[in-house]
Queue: 3 jobs
Job 1
Amino acid sequence: MLKQRHMFKLLAGAGLVTLATAMPVAAQEIIKLGLSIPLSGAGANWGKGSVFLCKQAAKEIAAEGGVKVGGKVYNYSCVAYDNKYNAAEGTKVAQALLNRDGIKFIGGSLGTAPVKALQSLSERQGVLHFTTAWGSSIKGPDFPLTFTIMNTPNEISYPLIQYIKEANPAVKTVALLNPNDASGQETEVIARKAWASAGVTVVSSDWFDRGTTEFQPIASKIAATKADAVDLGGTPPSDSGLVFKELQAIGWKGVKLVEVGTGAEGLIASGGAAGEDVYMGAAIVFDGPQVTEKQRKINDAGRAAIGESLNQIHIGFYDAVYALKAAMEQSQSVDPKVVAKALPSVKFNSFYGPSGFGGKGTYGSEQQILVPVIVTQIKGGKLTEVRRIEPAEMKSRK
């Protein structure tokens, strides 16, 4: 016990935090699911909600009898480390998960830069890797063990921006702002193409470092462009609220959107009334007609745990666990490489309903989860769903 406490102190001092689910003692085997996520900084709630939903899925599967492979019953535990949303910490987390803990399944990872650091080891070491990272550079035939478990810019940007243009036909120009890291840079490239495809001109594209707290200079620069719309791309909710608050103070009025916008609470908490009318592409409404009682109950528990509603980033970590269960049972294997080969052909019930993996036409291989794009907007200080767009590939399979 003293040795365990000493190890925890060492990990805490290194900026690493480990969380694990407690599984029933009746389970014959436990498979650890490693998580590389931000548990501190502006993206902390993304990470905390992701841990919550990984644990939730593991608990549900255990209650339903576990994962049955080769005459054995397996259950999952979730082991999470703080990657602080940067490459340096992501490298430390990768070493901890794969080389020290010996984990063979990454149940979820977040942030393109830290995910790349993890992927450089996971692919070489034969580790199956689920991720919510947005970067297209981490997908494709060169990375056969990496699977994306949420919609990314290629899935979100085009339908989101097309809808916004249709709803706001007067928009002719847009200013972009993104975090100056791998996630933001890859998001910006796709956003440019999506706006161009909608007939809108990008008049400026700016960057900020994660951890920035003073956005007035950036807001002034954006306002000076007189753009009809401002697209904050991959900016976290709390930072987005600060940017829109500064733009409102300057007097800028236009269409506001955050492509990776994951919820109203964080944005309104920092931006107040400036959050009104903001469009988002990665949030989900839990009081609409399409929401099930189970989804509402999970969200209520999640809100109690992290202080805000669950979003599509969090939900990816729930879906990863169910996708893994389906692939293990279909392949009757716990070998990561064998399970990875089964994933493109499995069908499973995601948080949203029936799902699978596709995206070969975009990425060259079937590694992208097929789930709806949900367009939301803040109205009267409340998140509302304005459009739900099911992927064409999933429609064709039905």
Job 2
Amino acid sequence: MHASLAYSIWVIFKKDLRVWWRNRLNIVVSILPVLTILLINGLFAVAVGRGPVALVTLDQGPKGQEMRQIFHQANLFLITDATPQQAQALLKNVQVGAVITIPADFTQRVAAHEPSPVDVTVNNLNLDITNDIRRAVPDVITQFYQAQGSQSPIKVTLHEQDLRHRDVTNFQYNVVPMLVLLLMVSGLVNSSTATAREWETRTIKELLLAPVARSAIITGKVLAGFIATVLLGFLIFGLSAALDWTRPAGWQWLPSLLVLALVALLGTGLGVAFGATLQRLQVVATGSILVAFYLFFLAGGIGVLAFEPSWLQNIAAYNPLAYGMHALSLAVFYSSSDLLGRDVLVLGLSALAAIALGILALRRGVAS
């Protein structure tokens, strides 16, 4: 006689969750690749966010010192104040990307309304850093002339109107895709290995011979994978909020957690289908990570999707992870619900389709 369906689901759920907790390697495998990419993004943001330059101020007059101060306050450079000799040594040893020199007669030339050149020597070893410096120096000079007000021979007025109320650093912006990737890797790895393990260790026979409905086996496994994944995701999300990397404002916590849960459900369903189809632990462990990363990159996970090539945008339109990243970014950074209904609908339908695929694969595997 079959035990009650709810009790059977609970027993299988508890057993799978216990196995997941004891197998710490799965947790490490889920987190380590994502942390590695996050670390690379952090180092990249530090490396290219502000260009390293040596600033040589030969003018001790008021305008020369004002220009020096504007260079420091512009937040566009990593500045090392240096003498001409020190600056040349830094440039030669590739410790800075450029040497910026404020000439000794800068104050005199500004007062006389004469051309007042600022000398810039750039090492074009890296075009990305070089172009950043080339764009940043004219911006500083523009700020200098704006600060002169009515006395400036060049009338400059700057007016900035931001489309977004919050400035988000490159590192912070990349944390959201990393959270989505973490959930996909965790969901796929946990569910696929837990499912494949039943066949590889032959414990699937014990489950089939037990007085348990097959629907209970399937439901318990899907539920265990989902809970393990979503708890890990919520924990990392809360940690990143505590570090002020991703902190939604007010009620935006609700759509943020909903999107995370739907991505976890999507990963779990795909993981169950993957494990039940291949039924080999080593194959599904490696394959799950590859599938998660391919889905992540094809969703425009690295960079801003709107600025990516059109072919990638066309692929991402059919990738549910792209909708998850969009909804999560708007909720976390901009307190916006723009297209939230569309994003949740696509994620929800995709998660249900993945669960249905997982159930179908499990039924076929059990039947065989």
Job 3
Amino acid sequence: MNCHERTIAALNREKPDRVPVFSCTEEQNQIYEILGQKGNAVPLSLIQAGITGRLVKLAAPLVNASGWFNREFEKFMAKKLEADIALGYDCSWLMYSAIFNVRDNRQATDIYGRLYDFVADPDGNIDTPMYREGLLTTPERWEAWPHPDPDRFHKALQRVFAGLQRRYGERIYLMGSLLCGLWENASQTMGLAGFAVALRRAPAFVRRMVKYYETLYLAAVHAVADAGLPGFVYSDDMGYKSGPQTSPRVMEEFFGPSLRRITDEAHKRGLKIIIHSCGNVNQLLDLFVEWGFDGVHSLEPTAGIDLAEVKHRVGHRMCIFGNLDIAHVLSHGTREEVEAAVKHALRAAAQDGGFIMAMTNSHNAVRVENTRWMIEFTHRYGTYPLALD
């Protein structure tokens, strides 16, 4: 089987020739190391210190008007795919992250109404901007925010994804995505405290807000399909380490109808669509199935997720992605620890098919060497029929 056939078989809850491996890596330090281009990453000091730092601070409006910052995000997506192909991944999560506006040389906002800090990875290079707070703390502020136009959004995403599909689509199964889902957009742009108040005092406003974000996500789904990609990742962190960020009842009442429309539209366009959520999502797993998702990713072991239990509960209804630990195993673990983690995941969830190996998330502390071991051991032990003893 090739990477496409292998991935599709697993997404259909069948047994491919071997377990596919899924990439969610988005970190500069790892991608440039894989490509042998470690010096190409952008140091944070370049935009914060000295003359260049002062220039960035003064020229923030020009940087935004020129689109330079977001074009760099778009270029980096190609580097990410080149690295994924070089490592031997079968499928890749391709996140569209060109959504930022530079406020000054230390902070940025996004198109939704969040404030971020620029932060550094362990090598001192620019990492993914770190969410600080929501700027739209009241319904009035949300209404006044200049919301992105879904049609323009569709065109931008289609342009980028179509180019990447033409260049890389035959060599790796691509799953397009859009940074921030409906829950994150609704709760983070207001802040969790303000959003909780709005749920009680202004439910009609919350529904209107969620409906708008639905239109953006539908535009993204159509952009991915029009670009010729075969899959879509709906990314929306709904969990804390201890459980869901709000009750399953609230998630179903306010977000369920929109999520069903998103998955329905994806399926009508011929896309496979999976859901990514960090945290302990045990109480949400059945909803993920009911909402129509073909697979679920993250399933963090450090958040109390038992992969075998997930497989037992929903593995006959959706594909399981995961769940190699990035807190220790892939960041600090030995070769033997990575081997043991791979074999544990295969035993827990791969025996009957419908399983795709993946680390739980992207993080700048993950070691490239450990990632190589994850792929190596999946290829070694993940060939069907599995032989793990």
